[in-house]
Amino acid sequence: MLDDYQQLVDEISAALGAPTTLENRDFELIAFGAHDSGAYSTKADEADELALDPVRTRSILRRRSTAAVRAWFEGFGIARAQAPLRIPPDPGAGVFMGRICLPVRHRGVVHGYVWLLDDGHLSDLELGGPSGPPDPRLARAMETAARIGALLAAEAQADEELGGQLRDLLTGPPGGRDTARTALRAALRGAADGPLALVAVTPWAPRDASNAEDAEDYPSARLPSPPGVAAVCVLPVPPGPGPAAGPAAGPAAGRSPAAGLAALVRLRASTALDPARTAAEHLLRSAGGGPERSGTVRDRGFAGVSAPRRGLDDLPAAWPEALAAARAARADARLGPVAEWSAIGPYRLLAALPAQAGPDPVVQALLKPSHAELARTAEAFLDCAGQASRTAQALGIHRQTLYYRLSRVEQLTGLDLDAGEDRLLLHMALKSARL
């Protein structure tokens, strides 16, 4: 499929004599072609072209554009455009060259954009409109863009079917799981035998159709599919083992995400989860949870990676693992934004507990905002295995200050921090409250 896109992009680039890129509607790079005086450029020529336009450089080298660049281009109405649009340069935004945008549509839905880089030689190109028909070369380019749109639409349909099969396998009724497993195995062929891992991203809030004005152009949000991802779907996320209150809780405490993204990732080996982590980071950016997004920690997305699996039969058990790891990443900043099931320690047990009405009674008084420093001290003390010197050093306080705070913790909870069972209860109650 990638070769098909590349061939079509090269056709447009050659016909119009301009460097060309193809991006999907999430501004993720699919293919690009360079053109230089009637022949394709050398690598040196391409490097020179890239240096002239930082936005194109980033798109090619990082495979996507920033949210700011996306917003700037969408401000010209490209998501609603039915015909080519001319985009002026804006050096302040890093757009040193103008562009002609060819919307890639299929049956009225925008699936992506073809970008023609214009150093001035396309300034007289007639785009068409009330003043007259478009330049014949541009008309042919739009026909090629329509062929690209048909390919993208077919790919989206195939991805949607795979996603439905994955959803039925993970959370469907027992009778439907066998059917979904068979269909998924047939679609994935050899990859179905593994090794595989599941990635969970919560909360899932894709950026498609965030603008109500563009909703008609995005009737259904296509889910991202990074390299190595075999299938993706959106699933409801059940409540965790208690409200998100605790030593690190903020204003968003108590809200459980309503939906999460599940991604089935192919691994190179059952001992290497690197492809799953890479896919998780890509998906977080697609969900707006990457470093480009502003907001508090609990506003952003987090991802979890299950233990590896060999084949499809054990995937339903892998989904709770991935979800628990994502919750742990959200609860404990030391784990996130991507956490692996094997590395979340006590959260593996706590995430499996049923939903509660509130935090354990032993920590209720300790979790009041006025006692936040005491709760943080108690958790640090227990994380350090009760070693006072390590705890004081970690918190940057004097040991006498630590002893005073721990005595206050005992008064508030009624627990004896010299007793192993009391320490265990307090430690688990604080960790559970984080979830």
Summarize the structure.
By secondary structure, the protein is an alpha+beta fold.
Please give a handful of descriptors for the protein shown.
PucR_C-HTH_dom; 14 helices; Beta-Lactamase; Transcriptional regulator; 5-stranded mixed β-sheet; 435 residues; Arc Repressor Mutant, subunit A; 3 domains; Homeodomain-like_sf; 5-stranded antiparallel β-sheet; alpha+beta; PucR_C-HTH_sf
Q: If you had to describe this structure to a student in words, what would you say it looks like?
A:
- Residues 374-431 form the PucR C-terminal helix-turn-helix domain.
- This is Transcriptional regulator.
- InterPro entries: CdaR-like_regulators (IPR051448), Homeodomain-like_sf (IPR009057), PucR_C-HTH_dom (IPR025736), PucR_C-HTH_sf (IPR042070).
- With 435 residues, the chain is α+β, with helices and mostly antiparallel strands.
- It has three domains: 2-153, GAF domain (Beta-Lactamase, 2-Layer Sandwich); 192-350; 361-434, Arc Repressor Mutant, subunit A, CATH 1.10.10.
- Helix content is 42%, strand content 14%.
- It contains 14 helices and ten strands.
- A five-stranded antiparallel β-sheet has the order 2-1-5-4-3, with helices on both faces.
- The longest helix has 36 residues, at 136-171.
- The protein is elongated and about 85 Å long.
